Amino acid sequence: LSTGKNIHETREWIIRNSPVPIGTVPIYQALEKVDGVAENLTWEIFKDTLIEQAEQGVDYFTIHAGVLLRYVPLTANRLTGIVSRGGSIMAQWCLAHHEENFLYTHFDEICEIMKAYDVSFSLGDGLRPGCIQDANDEAQFSELKTLGELTHRAWEHDVQVMIEGPGHV
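Structure tokens predicted for Phosphomethylpyrimidine synthase ThiC:
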């Protein structure tokens, strides 16, 4: 519910007609707004997308805030690399700009938006392993530790959290 033709109208119809909670991955729609070029993403574009989807009534957002710049090199020797779409988008952005993940640096602002609209987090495991050989490596555990820390920060803002995992192994 984050990409595709007429996504705004499609998502609105699904939310209005669904008896179950609806979640999205806002970075996917933000990426479409910059024609699929991860390097062109900005905090402002993402924030606008987040608010747009929150105003539509999305129940939870998958946010890949745990993919930190210093963790990306830890995936270099993996057999399957970074298999999460959201994780690879944010890793690509971090490497292109040599800056920390803006979802991490703006996490408190994201929490305030989510609190205002009563949206829950699904903290995305962007560095999850894609095969047994890559499982339980330093990249995965470093990100999981960060996701735990972000959970406590979200709770301080009175925002509910789910942590994705353990991956596709």
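The chain has one domain: 22-163.
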